[in-house]
Amino acid sequence: MKAIRVTEFGGPEVLQVTEIPDPVPGPGEVLVRVHAAGVNPVETYIRSGKYAALPPLPYTPGNDAAGRIEALGPDVTGVNPGDRVYVAGSITGTYAELCLCPAMSVHPLPAAIGFSQGAALGVPYSTAHYALFHRGQARSGETVLVHGGTGGVGLAAIQFARAAGLTVFATGGTEAGRALLQQQGVHAVFDHSTPDYLAAINDRTGGRGVDLIIEMLANVNLRNDLLLLAAHGRVIVVGSRGPIEINPRDAMVRDADIRGVMLAQAAPEVVQEVHRAIVGGLTDGSLQPVVGRQFALPEAPQAHEAVMAPGAGGKIVLVL
To answer: Are residues 111 and 138 in the same domain?
Structure first.
């Protein structure tokens, strides 16, 4: 099969298409024929060699995909060859024609959801649900600000929050991104590239502040996030690319929390609850993954550049 292989850590150019043997499923494993693979920022950090936990070389990147089940290992029940599935975790990597997965990492993909959309589900939708409802304890009637709402996690958080009855604010740095947020039913959209957007958010709440912030770039925004919170508010840190200095008093006077998100820390039963919610939302139509750009497998280097660029407008996907 064809697969992207990384033989040395470095820039996007180290992502090379290679012919490797087809994987064979063992006990408790499922082999999936990949129609689309999701590209996530964390995969660029790993590829560069700058992530805390690095795989042994060579390796195939990727955790998210969608396709059809090709074969089952011994003792796997509940799924069948030919089933449409999305993948949220892979043993062999998803930037490939075939990927080997633990059976618990494949989930049904409704017929109304395309494979490219399915590849947008794993990390972004799992992270969004975990951030909102498990770490953020979001409740109907609260106001949530999705700070950086046009990427995969941001759009997923918006859709979950809307379905759960929250008032949703979101920011976008481009005109096209803000138009997309409007299409997603966001109640108030703000341009985080303008100097007065923080005051505009505060004014929109009548000075009360927001209950919850889903933060994609804490190293830039966390200091100001604390000033936007209502009493007992929570900032949920989904992403950060470096350190930032904050004034702890800004959290103290609001009795506020700053909570980190690391999906790998979620208990297995929580992960399964998250995926039941995703499948339920896909089935009832409240979740509609948005694909920003699609690249062919040999264009994985360009996909890694795109996923780190501003204004993605949805999920970056490799199509096979």
So the answer is: no
User: Mapping DSSP to helix (H, G, I), strand (E, B) and coil, where does residue 17 land?
Assistant: strand
Give the DSSP per-residue string, 224-255: HHHHHEEEEEEEEE---SS-----HHHHHTTT
Q: Which residues of 54-87 are buried (b: 16+ CB within 10 A; e: fewer)?
A: eeeeebbbbbbbbbebbbbbeebeeeeeebbbbb
Question: Strand, helix or coil at 75?
Answer: coil
d(CA 152, CA 174): 16
Reported pTM = 0.93
For residue 188, the enclosing domain spans 124-264
List the beta strands (DSSP E) in the chain: 2-5, 16-19, 29-39, 64-72, 84-88, 98-102, 106-108, 143-147, 167-172, 188-191, 210-215, 229-237, 257-260, 291-296, 315-319
Same domain, yes or no: 247 and 140:
yes
pLDDT digits (tens, 9 = 90+) for 65-85: 999 999 999 999 999 999 999
Sign of CA dihedral 21, 93, 106, 316: negative
CB 314 within 8 A of CB 290: yes
Is the separation of the CB atoms in 222 and 258 below 8 Å?
yes
Question: How many domains does the chain fold into?
Answer: 2
Per the domain annotation, does 272 fall within a domain? no
Tokens representing residue 244 in the block: 């930032």
pLDDT in tens, 235-256: 999 999 899 999 999 999 999 9
